[in-house]
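Shape matters. As here.
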Amino acid sequence: MRCRVLLAPPAVLLAALFGPAPAADDYAHGPDSVPQAGVPKGKVTGPVRWKSEVFAGTERDYWVYVPAQYKPGEPACVMVFQDGGGYLGGPFRAPVVFDNLIHKKEMPVTVGIFVNPGKFPVPGKEEKDWRSNRSFEYDTLSNQYVAFLEKEILPEVGKGVKLRSDASGRAICGISSGGICAFTAAWERPDLFSKVLSHVGSFTNIRGGDVYPGLIRKTERKPLRVYLQDGSGDLDNLHGHWPLANVQMASALKFMGYDYTFAYGDGGHNGKHGGVILPDSLRWLWRDTPTTPK
């Protein structure tokens, strides 16, 4: 089957519509999320400061993970993470998970690019007080962010490591507004990214993102593979209801015959659940990926 929902659909709908039961949110990491003896460790370089032209006036940091198995001159798969600094550690521990899965050949040799959202420098103020451009970059439904990746970040990283240029060798991931950003990037440019991983994605009306379920249903199916994660304790505010929004996304993807999975837990608007299931998410996303570009 193309689709897989990790909770019975009626239970998902009841929880989304009528509110969650008290959330345990007590997920525990498995062995793929901790360093293992005998597993070669990849190298993380950064932070690298980047001044953008696509988002004029902004500055941001990014990091690059290169697996130990990377061979210079051979194109590697690539995965881009929004709010990238948060994916390096915390509940996600992406470099450790990459190390373990690549070593076990449960995902291909993959370079990770971890990109933070842009900020506008404010003279005389510390960086923590600079004006954030995150919502504009992540929640806007346009091709501007994916153009930023295509024109700036991917070519810059590509100077040091050879990256695959085919969509089947590229994935994109994010949490909250970074989750809808990941989907938007692939939706706008399925020729650049074919795999999407969204954690507690903000498919709500922050900047019009609540249109996606209807848009998916009325648009010819695109060559995308989508993994959605959310929890019954997610947000409910003036922008919308996050659990219901993700249920609607999953329903639309199912209706249109997409290759998708919806992992629905009992957590809140955080990375606990998504971090614990990151190894399974990556195995699912990268399954049957060709070792050479199509």
About this structure: The radius of gyration is 18 Å. DSSP finds ten helices and 13 strands in the chain.
